[in-house]
Design goal:
Strand order of the largest sheet of chain A: 2-10-9-4-5-6
Distance between the termini of chain B: 40 Å
Order of helices and strands of chain A: EEEEEEEEEE
Structural class of chain A: mainly beta
Strand content of chain A: over 45%
Oligomer: heterodimer
Chain lengths: 105, 122
């Protein structure tokens, strides 16, 4: 079973700052990785798929990179609405990482 | 616009059964694979099951295999999850989710319902 480990568990930043979230796979997953955003009381929203493709309607400040075992979600300049929990997910067995909480500093 | 609306959750005793439904609209339901994903209170996301666009292929997480059955009714644009032999570990919000691409499993979920809460408790 492929395990996804996200870091950090919590990231405290201010609006306007750059956010870098990491996801590491226990085995290579090529570029078959997605990122989701979830706000309290809401369903998750697909941000990035196949490591670097933005989903429909996702702002350009969100970008994804990586391949194999190491992946990064970058938010170039944080907006107030970006503070949420972010999950990575690999498409082989559909497993998710444990999440990174992005909170306002 | 795409809408997914789950129903059927509630409180159930361990060992009992429950059937969840997900009413889909705003897209051609018969051409997309569909998934169930759950989230225990305060916890992360766990994929549960997937069904192909035509219902011919179904796959399950090990944690639910042999107890849960996913199905779909194209005529009603509805996805189902039959859950048997429930345990307290099955307590979660259950979301249905649409697969990203037409006619295949991509394993990515581009639209999600708000979910229905299943509480397994004696």
């Amino acid at each position: 079973e492929i395990v996804l480990t996200q870091s950090p568990a919590t990231l405290s930043l201010s609006p306007g700052e750059r956010a870098t979230l990491s996801c590491r796979a226990s085995q290579g997953v090529s570029t078959y990785l997605a990122w989701y955003q979830q706000k309290p009381g809401q369903a998750p929203r697909l941000l990035i798929y196949d490591a670097s493709n933005r989903a429909t309607g996702i702002p350009a400040r969100f970008s994804g990179s990586g391949s194999g075992t190491d992946f990064t979600l970058t938010i170039s300049s944080l907006e107030p609405e970006d503070f949420a929990v972010y999950y990575c997910q690999q498409r082989s067995k559909y497993t998710f990482g444990q999440g990174t909480k992005l909170e306002i500093k | 616009q795409v809408q997914l609306v789950e129903s059927g959750g509630g409180v159930v005793q361990p060992g009992r059964s429950l059937r969840l439904s997900c009413a889909a609209s705003g897209f051609t339901f018969s051409t997309y694979a569909m998934h169930w994903v759950r989230q225990a209170p305060g916890k992360g996301l766990e994929w549960v099951a997937v069904i192909s666009y035509d219902g011919s292929d179904k796959y399950y997480a090990d944690s639910v295999k042999g107890r849960f059955t996913i199905s779909r009714d194209i005529s009603k644009n509805t996805l189902y999850l039959q859950m048997n032999y429930l345990t307290t570990d099955d307590t979660a919000v259950y979301h249905c989710a649409k697969d990203l691409s037409f006619g295949e499993f991509t394993g990515y979920f581009d639209y999600w319902g708000q979910g229905t809460l299943v509480t397994v408790s004696s």
